[in-house]
Amino acid sequence: MNVSKFYMNGEWQESNEIVTVLNPKDKSYVGKYYATNKTLIPEIITSSKKALDDWANMPIEKRGNIIQKASDILVREYGDEGKETRLKKLIVDEVGKRLPEADIEVIESSDMLGYFANVGSKVLDNKDIQLNEELWPTKRSYIAYEPVGVIGIIQPWNYPLELPLWAIGSALIAGNTVVFKPSEYSTLVGIEIAKIFDEAGLPKGVLNVVTGNGEIGKLIVENKDIDMIAFTGSHKVGKQINIKCAENFKKVNLELSGNDAAIVCSDADLELAANGIVWGAYCNAGQVCVGAKRIFVHEQIYDDFVKTVKEKTEELRLGIDIGPIINENEIIKIESFIRDAVEKGASLVSGGKREDNYIQPTILANINSTMTLMHEELFGPVLPIIKYSTLSEVIQMANDTQYGLGASIWSKDSTKAKTISQKLQVGMVWINDINVAYPEAPWGSIKASGNGISLSTYGIEKYCNIKHVNYETSNDKTRVWWFPY
């Protein structure tokens, strides 16, 4: 029986521990992989450190060519929209995504890698700084973008291809080397990433892919030769990583939990808003960091909105539109959120029950601030609806959370929507849409959602040390501000 190997210094390696992967839908067999031996982690990181100079000194265009080849391989693995390929089937089988969701993830991942490959030179070329010529007539300055070093990248299972690649692509084009640990719930997809870059011709040691549980991630975070950690995941784990990295002044790029608000204005296109929010709440079975998690609806259209989303929700089919929940612990947690809300006065408008390894898409109304889902991230197919009266009220309620990841605004009045967006304490706002990632635009977070920026030129710069270089153009032997005074 084939067992997937981990990727160490350009070679495929085995170990004495084999892990079996089961489909979250029905616990059927998906595959097996070798878990990386903990004692190998220092050696693996050392291989990335040894590969750093050659990779960092390689012309940016050559690094970009390799990343572009990886992008092209993803286009091949995408095939045709709506048609199953080996990679898309693996995403569906390992983490339970629906085929259309796997479609989106593969093609977006290719687009992102292509973007990094194409803009690398422009972003990373030295940038002249305009100094005050009257004060400094003979001085010249520029900014140099240099790699941070060895980057430890730890990414989650809910976007098992896209989230790792937007971190890995940014880090690689900037000249860093990478030690990547995929989630233990999406390890087989993580191994596919190593295969893609191996086929693209990435030199040995530039990307290592290690497998295993959180203990492996901890060893990466704590290793002295790791110069930066890029982590997407829970607020709790991200906070621990931040503290540990701060002890050694290690850079971090953290995107953590979210509790995104969707604000439906009185003038919203009801059909558009309902369609968008139903998808935003339930895509990937609600296991999305920027999903619609708190839906604020103006009192004038509240009843109509609830009726409309109820109709659309009850048309959704488990196993076709709605995928399974990733594991039993998450199912129990989602059930506890629903139970807590109902016990505190919420109305169960639709769904709310477990069916095997699925949670029915659920609508909750009459939400109040005492309920857990208003303050903690709910990672499941639950759509809580809250009534509001005024814009000032809804802005206050939307901001009444420790998190600051994303938000959506639904209104026909673009001026009003933009005004609301300026008052929301989040890293991203979508107007009349939700949860769309563009490689050209920053994906960012604030507050307890982290300090992360991914994608765009800003995301590439996150993986750089920015150095100011100043030089003198005159032949003077002294400066007027030197001794003697």
Quick check: average pLDDT? 97
Any idea what the shape is? globular
Proportion of strand residues: 15-25%
How far apart are the first and last residues' alpha carbons, in Å?
Answer: 81 Å
Number of domain modules: 2
Residue runs with pLDDT of under 50 for 5 or more positions: none
Label the CATH architecture of the largest domain. Answer: 3-Layer(aba) Sandwich
Radius of gyration: 24 Å
In CATH, what is the homologous superfamily of the largest domain? Aldehyde Dehydrogenase, Chain A, domain 1
How is this structure best described in words?
By secondary structure, the protein is an alpha/beta fold. It has 2 domains: 6-256 and 450-468, Aldehyde Dehydrogenase, Chain A, domain 1; 261-431, Aldehyde Dehydrogenase, Chain A, domain 2, CATH 3.40.309. The protein has 14 helices and 25 strands. It has helices at residues 41-57, 60-78, 86-95, 99-124, 162-173, 187-200, 214-222, 235-247, 270-282, 302-313, 328-343, 391-399, 414-423, 456-461; strands at residues 6-8, 11-13, 18-22, 29-34, 127-129, 139-147, 150-154, 177-181, 207-209, 228-232, 251-255, 261-264, 294-298, 347-350, 354-355, 358-359, 362-365, 382-388, 403-404, 406-410, 428-431, 443-444, 446-447, 453-454, 464-472. The strands form 8 sheets. A 7-stranded mixed β-sheet has the order 14-17-18-13-12-20-21, sandwiched between helices. Strands 9-8-7-10-11 form a 5-stranded parallel β-sheet, sandwiched between helices. It has a 3-stranded antiparallel β-sheet with strand order 5-6-25, with no helix packed on it. A hairpin with a 2-residue loop joins strand 15 (354-355) and strand 16 (358-359). The longest helix has 26 residues, at 99-124. The termini are far apart. The relative contact order is 0.13. The mean pLDDT is 97.
